[in-house]
Structure formats: structure tokens, C-alpha cells
């Protein structure tokens, strides 16, 4: 075979860069339009914020909205409840998964860690409260005393009783391990007929009183007799959340009119109204030292403020902002909880995350 008959190796084809140039051109045009029709300073700030690592860590173990969070009494773990029908326990320092509790058949709406750290109680859309071991996940007891979804629950300070609030309009106080009913409170009549749902419960630090939020004002009842002790707030609207200060002197109430009211319990005197939110306030918590309050709501922010004066200190936007690793915006913050040492806050949202951060 002569060299003339030998098939020549074709020269390598030049790779066309036309597609790359087209994409770059489109990007340049879009950026130019962005800078022409928007505030340049804001655009630069947004880009800087987007690529700056956030000063918090995010737990992303849930596949649906996060309804409740609670720290273990020693501050080492966090439990979270979700619309994905689970409650999960995880390491508070790094988000390492510990266990998933799967005994509920519907959304888990509320969760509380017992003061002695031995149990977790969860309430659900399946109308039950379930008590279980946070280390093994073993179920201890299931309470069937309410005929509607359990919206909120709280352990008594001495670990022996649980108060649960339900969509059936009742709040029940019962023995935490046997389910024996101690007190039943039935809320006011709904404007649509029947009994209005009870939204929230909180024990006073000495275990004497229970605060209840629902239709109209928040109320205080005796935890032994169920007798109404006092009313706190307007007769209209909804009280979504209630929380006592650590000394029991004050009661904070998150409402559907975008405010938080702070009342002196003994005198039934309103101390001030916090107006920092622009939507319903669904959750609030006092710092362990009683000096600050954190509140979250339908505006997807958590706000931290002076508990005695109402002076605003800090707004956390980690659930609503877009940044690297967080590409979905929560519609609301459903739950906030201070760490036992008061140095961090855990917040859960409809963005399906729990975020742990420092209240600067």
C-alpha cells in the first residue's frame, strides 16, 4: 500500500464556543438589566449575602414543615416535630441524627421534653399524645383523651402531669404516665358553632397555674381545680401562643393581630405591647434569665427584644432569606426555643428546616 492509499487521520475538529458565548451574553444582559432597573447597592448587598456563609447551622432532616422544637434539659440534643408524621432527635451542636420516632399516623403538631430529660411527649393530628424515650424511641404511653387534633402540650415543672390543648376546644391536665384525668377546661363557644379550639398552653414555673390561649383573651386556670383565675387580653381575635417568664411574674401572649402583649400576672395589668411583627405571632419564648423574648410568626422572621421594655434588639431572617444552601423561603416561623444556657435559639419553619443560631 502506498502512502497515497493510506487513510489519513482526520484533524481534530475545533470545539465551537458559540453556545458558551451565547450563555455568557445572556447572563451579561440579565445582570445589566438588573443593575439598570434596581438599586445597585441593594443588588451588591444581596449577592454578598447570598455567598456569605450563614452564622448558624441548619437541620434538614424533615421533609415537611417543622411545627415544634425543644432542647433537652442538658442542652446537648434537640427534638423536632413535623408535618412529615415524625419527631426526630438530633445533636444540638452539629445536627447529627440520633433517632426518628414514627408512631404517629398524621402530622406531629407539638412536642415537649420532660424537665428531667427522661421522656418526650408529642401531640398529633391523629388526636393522640404519645410519650416515648428520647434515647431508644420506645413508646411509654399513648393518651386518647381528646377527640380532636392536639395543638399544644406542656409538662408540669415536677414532671408528673401534662396539659394538652385540642381542636375539640378542651384543655386537659392528666397524669403523665397513667393518663388519669385531673382537670378538664372547655373553651368558649365558636362564632361558627361548637366550641372554639384551644391553641396553646403553658405552666407557671411553680406549677400552680396554667395559661391557655385560644379564642379571645388568654386565661389562667388553677391546675388543681380548673377554676378560672383571670383573663388577659381582648375579647376578640385569637391568642396563638402563651409563655410565662422564668419567675412567673409576667405572661406573654402572641396574637393574630401581629402583636405580643406582656401582662403582669398578679395584677392583671398589661405592661406593654410589642409591635415588631407584620403578621400573626405563632410562637414565643422567654430567655432563661427572663431578660429577653423571642417571637416568630407569619412574616417568617424571629424577633428578639427586651422583655421588660419591649425594645427591639435583633431580627433573624434565616428562614425567609435566600442564601447558599437555602433556596426556599418559609411562609412562617412555627416554633422557637432558647437553649438552656440562653446562648442559642432553635427555630422551625414551613421551609422544612430547624435553624440554630445566636441571638446577636
Care to give the gist of this entry?
This protein is 9% helix and 42% strand. It contains two helices and 28 strands.
Outline the structure in words.
Strand 20 (260-264) and strand 21 form a beta hairpin. The strands form 7 sheets. A 4-stranded antiparallel beta sheet has the order 1-28-27-26, with no helix packed on it. Mean pLDDT is 89; it is low at 1-15 and 42-53. The longest helix has 20 residues, at 18-37. It has helices spanning 18-37, 40-51; strands spanning 56-59, 66-71, 77-82, 87-91, 97-101, 108-113, 120-124, 129-132, 139-143, 150-155, 161-166, 170-175, 181-186, 198-203, 209-214, 218-222, 228-232, 239-244, 250-255, 260-264, 269-274, 281-286, 292-297, 302-306, 312-316, 333-338, 345-349, 354-357. By secondary structure, it is mainly beta. The chain folds into 2 domains: 18-50, no CATH class; 56-357, Methylamine Dehydrogenase, Chain H. It is built from 2 helices and 28 strands.
